[in-house]
Specification:
8 strands, about 40% strand, two-stranded antiparallel ribbon, mainly beta, 1 helix, about 120 residues
Length: about 120
């Protein structure tokens, strides 16, 4: 599924609304495995050797679903070397085909509520 993603946390802490509005948007293919691991990949097809755009979201759960927008929450690796995990939430928007919106964050209908860390 082709999606645009904005991360709602940094090192486990909620981002302020203005930080979320200015956050980098990632566009890629979202895959979710049966064990709840969500990954965002480059390109049209997902391969084991393909580069991840973001660190995977472990224990991902659907928090909110509204139209083409949804929020996933889980835990994300701080770095490949530390082994530390932090709470993270991804605000996702489904994209149709190869359409990548030229409009910014303001078209998403406001800020989503950030789920509490669990």
């Amino acid at each position: 599924m082709l999606v645009e993603v904005i991360q709602l946390r940094s090192t486990g802490m909620k981002l302020a609304p203005e930080e979320v509005a200015a956050a980098q948007r990632y566009v890629g293919n979202l895959s979710i495995s049966p064990d709840g691991c969500a990954s965002l990949h480059r390109g049209e097809q997902v391969h084991l050797t393909q580069t991840h755009l973001l660190p995977s979201l472990f224990g991902a759960r659907l928090v909110t679903l509204k139209g083409d927008d949804f929020m996933l929450a889980g835990r994300q690796m701080a770095s490949a070397y530390s082994g530390e995990m932090h709470a993270q939430a991804w605000w996702c928007r489904c994209l149709r085909g190869d359409h990548v919106p030229d409009k910014g964050f303001e078209t998403w209908g406001g800020l989503p509520p950030t789920p509490d860390a669990r």
